[in-house]
Amino acid sequence: MLPVNRNRNQPRAGRSWSFSGMDYSDAKRKPHFLGKVIVAALLIALCIFFLNQSPSFVGTSVFSRRELGVTHVLVTGGAGYIGSHAALRLLKDSYRVTIVDNLSRGNMGAVKVLQELFPQPGRLQFIYADLGDPKAVNRIFSENAFDAVIHFAAVAYVGESTLEPLRYYHNITANTLVVLEAMAAHGVKTLIYSSTCATYGEPEKMPIVEDTPQLPINPYGKAKKMAEDIILDFSKRSDMAVMILRYFNVIGSDPEGRLGEAPRPELREHGRISGACFDAALGIISGLKVKGTDYPTADGTCIRDYIDVTDLVDAHVKALGKAEPSKVGIYNVGTGKGRSVKEFVEACKRATGVEIKVDYLSRRPGDYAEVYSDPAKINRELNWTAQYTDLQESLSIAWRWQKSHPNGYRTS
To answer: Which residues are catalytic?
Structure first.
């Protein structure tokens, strides 16, 4: 019962009632207080309404719930060269896609292309986040109903890895551990891991098969192998479906010209040889620098297995479709044919129609002489075979995108 002053001689203006810590000294103030309450309630209702309309509002987002017949795939590094092409293919195949990228190497322009191609609600969302932040990663997993993860996100330049080894171990190995922990905590049971032929190092026998000893010779390959080991150790005590794809040198771009490769200018010297060829053809750099002419190969330059990005993405999608609980699949993804750097340069000249100036320099640290795959296992078990095996044709497709995007995704 509320305390009331019963002194009838006391002026009414002095009457004071205490209720829930608030003092109401006059009934005349009640309408004013009620008005404030009504305004506040309206403001709250408006906020809730606008949040409900926002695609990022987790409470109502389709990305936060599972739907029958819809597979929701988290693509880490999906703003990057390979990741964006993978996201495009997944979206074309009616998957629901969430891209997580910190844009340190990726391009928001690639994400915008995908958003324009697939504007329908519930198809694609982009989340800016760093996989090195466990709290952010855990929050992403708690707010989204993922069915599978395709883990592309990684720094990926051999030469740079020899200059910044700690960065590579942190970015590749430690970040993969963060992703695995989040998957385990939130019951996400399928992982497709983007690995590399660099885990093999410089094998004594060619071609490389999946059982070839892994003896990496640079921090990039070592960090990837460590990540593989973590995944394999964890898979022994879980029912996770795991696919590890070790692929070779990636070239090409989307045949329809929607996406391409656009590394940051400061990373050009570490980038793929195709990017350097195109930069030379465009006049961005004075010529092409070929590092190493004294390798034990027919023409003295390195031999590599060049895989078109469209074929590589197809391998990931097939791996996703074939992944089985409590099983691990490890596959080399390549054409099975090695091409020398000199062969590559000549193909690039023909594709661009430019007589590119070539300077021959000393070897790049951490490189190896000859690497090409035996794709028999992936041919047999996943029914995958490289289709884009004409080196000049792949380079011609990529060149068309480069010519129309001389500054990457910043202009078209």
So the answer is: 220
